[in-house]
């Protein structure tokens, strides 16, 4: 196997590990929202306990990138791709942390009767996990146009976040007994709003990977 062929195989293997990490994060977020809706404290604790799996995947990918840089001394586009990979795993790890934060909020809300059916928060999570799936597709396919399109969806999450804040503030002002619940729901909404920001950051790094240019998307 030639050096170049070996390098390409190593990059392909690395890309697959990124997809695995993204799948773990997407699953964690989905499960976090499910345990919120069901007020399932056992599932919430499981999400917290499994966060180490995502953290370990980040370390594994970072180690692979470091080894590739040391052995292959990549330049130009090859180096940009490895840098992008390092940036992506950092964003994914932070997304995994947000799933944990949501799960911890579920534990705090375990004995609460929700003030209203939760509609906008699950919708935020749905958009956010869709962004994760599609941005990783853009990464694998080297599609900067798709990355740019994915970033635009962050506005939808931001709008829903604003709506959640307005609603919980209203409930909190009308009835002080909802103060604790409102605070936790605002935190959860904020974690999901950050999910869109992290996905947008990944989109920007994909554009850099492909074009060599730093751009700000969805300003």
Overall residue-averaged pLDDT value: 93
* Helical content class: over 70%
Number of β-strand runs: 0
| Class by alpha and beta content | mainly alpha
Termini separation (Å)? 45 Å
What is the N-to-C order of secondary-structure elements (H for helix, E for strand)? HHHHHHHH
Number of helices: 8
Largest beta-sheet details: none
Q: What would your notes on this structure say?
A:
With 219 residues, this protein is an all-alpha fold. The protein contains eight helices and no strands. Helix 1 (3-38) packs antiparallel against helix 2 (41-49). The longest helix is centred in the N-terminal third of the chain and has 36 residues, at 3-38. The model has no long low-confidence stretch (mean pLDDT 93).
In short:
The chain has 219 residues and is mostly helical. Helix 1 packs antiparallel against helix 5, helix 5 runs antiparallel to helix 6 and helix 6 runs antiparallel to helix 8.
List keywords for this structure.
219 residues, mainly alpha, 84% helix, elongated, 0% strand, single chain
Question: What is the secondary structure topology, with strand pairs?
Answer:
Layout: H1 3-38, H2 41-49, H3 51-72, H4 76-108, H5 120-141, H6 144-152, H7 154-174, H8 179-211
């Amino acid at each position: 196997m030639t050096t170049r062929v070996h390098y390409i195989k190593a990059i392909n293997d690395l890309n697959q590990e990124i997809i695995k990490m993204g799948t773990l994060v997407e699953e964690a977020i989905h499960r976090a929202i499910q345990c919120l809706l069901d007020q399932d404290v056992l599932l919430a604790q499981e999400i917290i306990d499994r966060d180490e799996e995502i953290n370990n995947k980040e370390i594994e990918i970072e180690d692979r990138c470091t080894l590739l840089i040391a052995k292959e001394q990549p330049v130009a586009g090859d180096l940009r791709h490895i840098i992008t990979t390092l940036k992506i795993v950092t964003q994914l790890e932070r997304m995994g942390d947000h799933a944990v934060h949501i799960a911890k909020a579920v534990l705090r809300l375990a004995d609460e009767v929700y003030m209203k059916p939760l509609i906008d928060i699950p919708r935020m999570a749905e958009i956010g996990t869709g962004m994760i799936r599609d941005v990783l597709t853009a990464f694998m396919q080297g599609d900067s146009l798709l990355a740019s399109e994915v970033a635009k969806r962050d506005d939808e999450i931001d709008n829903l976040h604003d709506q959640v804040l307005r609603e919980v503030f209203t409930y909190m002002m009308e009835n002080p007994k909802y103060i604790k619940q409102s605070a936790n729901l605002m935190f959860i909404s904020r974690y999901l709003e950050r999910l869109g920001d992290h996905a947008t950051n990944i989109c920007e790094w994909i554009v850099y990977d492909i074009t060599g240019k730093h751009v700000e998307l969805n300003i």
